[in-house]
Each structure stands twice: as structure tokens, then as C-alpha cells.
Design goal:
binds dinuclear copper ion, about 625 residues, 43 strands, binds (dicuprio-$l^{3}-sulfanyl)-sulfanyl-copper, globular
Length: about 625
């Protein structure tokens, strides 16, 4: 049985993987591998040497990292360290990345967001948020490295409601999950939560050339717990949406206290109006950031009631339909953005909350689609279909977006098209390009919170499971199941050919002031107790490979990997000095070690680079401090 399946798979692969018009030496299985044809094995099999069709960027949750996998194979390709040190690449050990990490050695990555141009992925950057320490990071897809960590963002606590990228990457939009007394550092009793605590929506500005992020402006909000959001596009470009839980403004036993109300408020934010308010000076400065009080600046913020403890709110590719899932009710609420605009224009409000108009729910709701139990997030395929994750039911439901016929409207069960089981308790799901104007619409990845027993037992600490689903047909088809470390919350999928990654840092582009490319330029200079080394790494030696210091010295090594060949990576690990830096071809890194122990400390190359890799080693000597100096201490 197993054998016949294998034969079918390889036959189908052979038929599918004829060489296309790839550049020489570059094979892409994806070109020939279209979802929808063949057995699941054939559809996901990427032969050795072949490449996947898509990149999948998973958030790594409280690992602080981002995982890169390929679709359709689901093979893990690499890990991009972001908010936590990662010895495998030396991240967090050299001076440059140590400075970026600052005082933190962990983060909680939830939602990666790709940069966009005209509402489509432009393949330049991946932004990821840190729920734990209120930061936002920018990864460049040129070298797949973290280039900036912004934060902790002032006046914002619990950066969960991000990273939502606007249509032309003007902003990455952020909302606070937790409310705190502002400015940060001020004490107030949680008993006075309603009065003393506040939430915040932040516009993080992105420089169009460099991608450099900075805090643009903020909008003060009541102390709701802002949850997932999305940015508008097309007719809703310039707007953004977040759900909230805890409109009740409870501060303890939230499980019970924050689920009292029938509806919570979503934030409907006009970020272009926020920009204008800042230009016109309608702000106060709080911790150095221009903050808008929406009660004083009408038109910036509206509330939209959403039933019942909602979690996700997603804008469809047309920009007109907005779907929200209420965790405690079995429907996806679909809103019409055109009606939202009309309601705002006509001032069709049902009430006001702290000076912010509440849009009349009935006027803007298009319908409640009975998707099933525990709806969280919705994704779109660009063919008029939506896919909602159902945590409680462990199911993905496919349903049809409006416009609906009169008959469908009368019974919205009719727009529910298909359901597929996932294993188990799905959180997020992603369809490639769902948050753009043109989703790829072929693969869906279900990110399941529990994997219980779907894999070889690895003890009580279990991985998460991700399932690849083909969404090209009327019915969804399960293709593959992969496991990852904690914890993919959300992911982004981008076509492989939309990304232009370099594999070597060109020598000409290396602007490090202490880079050295030839043996004659290397050397060791002592200045008082400061010892500075310019070192080069080349197959298979360090130059210099002996460094003499004495106790109390501050040793700085600038090390350049002078290779210009792909995958020719060197590392420098120093024994018992807690130091390992990895240097990519053409890269220069700076590392600092304080000589606190005397003795002789071997150092060696940590990346297997050549037949004589083992010989790539040297000695760091540390003599005791001269007696006079020791006596003076
Ligand atoms: S949340 S499972 Cu952190 Cu993205 Cu919805
Ligand atoms: Cu260089 Cu191993």
C-alpha cells in the first residue's frame, strides 16, 4: 500500500517537474508544481535540489525569532533571530546586534507583516512585533537579517495589535493590548483602572528609502484591550481596524468580568486624519510623542460594536468587506466599509463613548455568517471566498463573501461552502497574499495551537502543528502537516521570485571602518588597557591567530570574513569567554571581551568551512596584571 503510494508520488513528480525556463543552475519545483493536481504527496514533494515556490515566514512566538520555511514542502529552511540571542548566527554576541537587543534577551513575536507597494508585497521588508517588550523589528529580505529594533514604544504596553502595514508601507500600525497609567513609570492603583489607565494606537512611520522606523503619532484610547487588526486598501485605504476585548474595562478575573457585554468595540481609525491633526498641531506631547486626544479631534477615531469578545478583524482584498470573529458566538460578522463611510458622513451614530462616536451596528452590518464555534481570524483567496479559523471546533470554514443574492441573504447558511478538520485548536491561518489586493489564493496554512500526539513523542513539551491546505478547488484539501517550535502565531507567504536575496556581502559595499581585506592590514594595537585587533578570516585561518593581553584589558576584535563565495561562513568562538560570533562572506563584525580571567584561551572557527576547518584556530593569552596594579586595587 505504502509502496504504491510512493510510486504514484514519484511518477507524478516526474511528470510535473520538467525543467522550465529557470535561469541556469536555478531549479524551482514551484514553477511546475501547481496546487490542485495530483496526490497530496506529489503536490508537496520538492525533489532534492529543487526549490519551493513560496517563502513562508512564521512568527516564533516567545522564542523571539522568525522561522523561514518553503511551500509546498513545508521544510524549515532557516531561523532569523530577532528579539533573542541566537548563537547559531552569533546574533546578540557582536556589538552591533547586542546594541539592538538592548536590555532584553527575549521577545514574543506574533504577527509578521510584509512591506507593500500599491497594496502588493514588494519583497523588501518583514516587520514583526514583540508583544512582551513593546517593540517592533524590521527584517530586510535582502539579507534575511534584523536591521532595526524600535522600542519599547513609548505610551504603549503589550504590542500585540501589530504589525499591520499600510498600502504603501507609509506606516506599520500598532495597538496596545494592555492599558497602563501614562506616561509609563507613573504609579496608579489598578482599582482606579477606568480613570487612570489608557490604551494607545500608534502610527510607526517607515522611511520609504531606508525602511527606518520611527514613532510618528499616537491616539489615546480608553483602557480597552486592543486585539488583532488590519489595514484598509482600495476604498478603505487610509483606515485601519482593531477589535478589542474588555470594553467592560475590568482589571481582574477578566475571564468572567470582560465577557459581560454583548458587544465590544472595534476601533475604526482614519490614520490620514491623524496625520493632518499632527500637522495642525492638535496634539499634546507625551513622553516625546505627539498624542491625539480623539475626543478633541473629531474624525480620527470611531468605535464599531462587534459581538461577542471578538479577536480578529480582517479586510478583504477589495477593501470593502471587513470580517470579524467573536470568540463567544458562532458567526463571522461582515461589515461593509461603504456603509461605514456613509454612517460616518450622516452621523449615524448609536451613542458616544468618552467623546468618540459609536457607529450604529445595524446600519453597517452586511450579515452574520454561521461559520461555527470559536471564530478567530479570516483570510481571503481573491476569488470571493473567505476562510475563518475556528478554535473551538478545530476547523477551517470556507464561505462566500458578499455581494450575496436575496436568497443567500435570507439564509446565510447557504454561503458556507466547506469545512475541513485541522489538528488541533487552530489559531491563525494564512492564505498567501491575503492582506494584499491580489492574494495568490492557492495555499492555506493552518497554525494549530495543539499537536497532541500527531508526532513522535518528545515528552511533555510539545511542538505546534501547521497544516498545508490546498484551496484551489471547491473543496479544501489537506496536503501536509509540519511541526515547529513554539510558537507560530501568524505567518506571511510570499512568492519566491518576489524576493531578491543576496548570498554574499559585496566587498565594495562593506563600509565598516575597521574592515580588513589583506593580511598586511591586519594587526593589534594597544592603547592603555584597550587592545584593538583587526582580524581577517579566510579558509582556513585567522590572521592574526595569536592575541596577547593582560588581566583587566578590554579586548575588541573587528573580524572580517574576506570570502566572496556563497555559503563560505566563518565563526569565532573563544573558549570559556562566552563568545561566539559568526561572520558571513564579506561581513565585518565587532566583538568585545573583558579580560577577567588569566590563562590561555584557544579560539576556533565554529562554522565548518573547509577541509582544514579544524585547523582554523588560535590563542588568546591573558597574563596576570602587573603586581603594582594588583596592589593598587
Ligand atoms: S493572536 S490566535 Cu497573538 Cu494573533 Cu490570534
Ligand atoms: Cu572557518 Cu571553519
Amino acid at each position: 500500500m505504502k509502496k504504491s503510494l510512493l510510486i504514484t508520488a514519484s511518477l507524478a513528480t516526474a511528470l510535473l517537474s520538467f525543467p522550465g525556463c529557470n535561469p541556469p543552475g536555478q531549479k524551482s519545483a514551484g514553477d511546475a508544481k501547481t496546487a490542485g493536481a495530483g496526490t497530496p504527496a506529489a503536490r508537496t514533494y520538492v525533489a532534492p535540489g529543487d526549490k519551493d515556490e513560496y517563502y513562508l515566514f512564521y512568527s516564533g512566538g516567545h522564542s523571539g525569532q522568525v522561522y523561514v520555511a518553503g511551500i509546498p514542502s513545508m521544510r524549515h529552511i532557516s531561523t532569523i533571530p530577532v528579539f533573542a540571542p541566537y548563537p547559531a548566527t552569533g546574533y546578540g554576541f557582536d556589538e552591533e546586534t547586542k546594541k539592538m537587543l538592548g536590555d532584553y534577551s527575549w521577545g514574543d513575536v506574533h504577527h509578521p507583516g510584509l512591506s507593500k507597494k500599491d497594496g502588493l508585497y514588494d519583497g523588501r521588508f518583514l516587520f514583526v512585533n514583540d508583544n512582551a517588550n513593546n517593540r517592533l523589528a524590521r527584517i530586510s529580505l535582502t539579507d534575511f537579517k534584523t536591521h532595526q529594533i524600535l522600542g519599547p514604544i513609548p505610551n504603549s504596553s503589550g504590542n500585540h495589535g501589530s504589525s499591520f502595514v499600510t498600502e504603501n508601507t507609509e506606516y506599520v500600525l500598532v495597538a496596545s493590548r494592555f492599558s497602563v497609567p501614562l506616561p509609563k513609570g507613573r504609579y496608579a492603583d489598578p482599582k482606579d483602572y477606568e480613570k487612570e489607565f489608557n490604551g494607545m494606537v500608534s502610527g510607526i512611520k517607515v522611511d520609504p528609502q531606508s525602511g527606518e522606523m520611527s514613532v510618528g503619532w499616537q491616539i489615546l484610547t480608553p483602557p480597552f484591550d486592543w486585539d488583532l487588526g488590519s489595514t484598509g486598501k482600495g476604498p478603505s485605504d487610509g483606515w485601519a481596524f482593531w477589535t478589542s476585548y474588555n470594553t467592560e474595562m475590568a482589571h481582574e478575573t477578566l475571564e468572567a468580568t470582560s465577557t459581560q457585554g454583548e458587544r465590544d468595540y472595534a476601533a475604526v481609525v482614519n490614520w490620514r486624519a491623524a496625520e493632518v491633526a499632527v500637522k495642525e498641531g492638535k496634539i499634546t506631547l507625551l513622553d516625546g510623542v505627539p498624542v491625539i486626544d480623539p475626543a478633541k479631534v473629531p474624525g480620527v477615531l470611531y468605535f464599531l460594536p462587534i459581538p461577542k469578545s471578538p479577536h480578529g478583524i480582517d479586510t478583504d482584498p477589495s477593501g470593502r468587506w471587513i470580517a470579524a470573529g467573536g470568540k463567544l458566538q458562532p458567526v463571522a460578522s461582515v461589515f461593509d466599509f461603504n456603509k461605514i463611510l456613509a454612517a460616518i458622513e450622516k452621523k449615524d451614530f448609536e451613542s458616544e463613548f468618552r467623546g468618540v462616536p459609536v457607529i450604529r451596528y445595524e446600519s453597517v452590518l452586511e450579515g452574520s455568517v454561521p461559520v461555527g464555534l470559536g471564530p478567530l481570524h479570516t483570510q481571503f483567496d481573491g476569488r470571493g471566498n473567505a476562510y475563518t479559523s475556528l478554535y473551538i471546533e478545530s476547523v477551517v470554514t470556507k464561505w462566500k463573501l458578499p455581494p450575496w443574492t436575496a436568497e443567500e441573504k435570507a439564509d446565510l447558511n447557504k454561503v458556507v461552502l466547506d469545512k475541513i478538520d485541522v489538528h488541533y485548536n487552530i489559531g491563525h491561518l494564512v492564505v498567501g497574499g491575503s492582506d494584499t489586493k491580489k492574494p495568490y489564493g492557492d495555499y492555506l496554512v493552518a497554525m494549530n495551537k495543539l499537536s497532541k500526539g500527531r508526532h513522535l513523542s518528545v515528552g511533555p513539551s510539545q511542538p505546534e502543528s501547521s497544516q498545508l491546505i490546498d484551496v484551489t478547488g471547491q473543496k479544501m484539501a489537506m496536503l501536509y502537516e509540519a511541526f515547529t517550535e513554539p510558537e507560530p502565531h501568524f505567518a506571511q507567504i510570499i512568492k519566491a521570485d518576489a524576493v531578491n536575496a543576496i548570498e554574499v556581502y559585496p566587498k565594495a559595499d562593506n563600509k565598516h571602518p575597521h574592515a580588513v581585506w589583506e593580511a598586511k592590514d591586519t594587526g593589534i594595537v594597544r592603547n592603555g588597557n584597550k587592545v584593538e585587533v583587526k582580524m581577517m578570516a579566510i579558509r582556513s585561518r585567522f590572521i592574526p591567530d595569536r592575541i596577547d593581553t593582560q588581566e583587566g584589558d578590554e579586548l575588541t576584535i573587528h573580524i572580517t570574513n574576506v570570502e566572496q563565495t556563497t555559503d563560505m561562513i566563518h565563526g569565532i568562538g573563544i573558549i570559556e569567554q562566552n563568545m561566539n560570533v559568526v561572520i558571513d562572506p564579506g561581513e565585518t563584525k565587532t566583538l568585545k571581551v573583558k579580560m577577567t580571567k588569566t590563562g590561555v584561551f584557544p579560539f576556533y572557527c565554529t562554522n565548518f568551512c573547509s577541509a582544514l576547518h579544524q585547523e582554523m584556530q588560535g590563542y588568546l593569552t591573558v597574563k596576570p596584571a602587573p603586581v603594582a596594579e594588583t596592589a593598587a586595587k
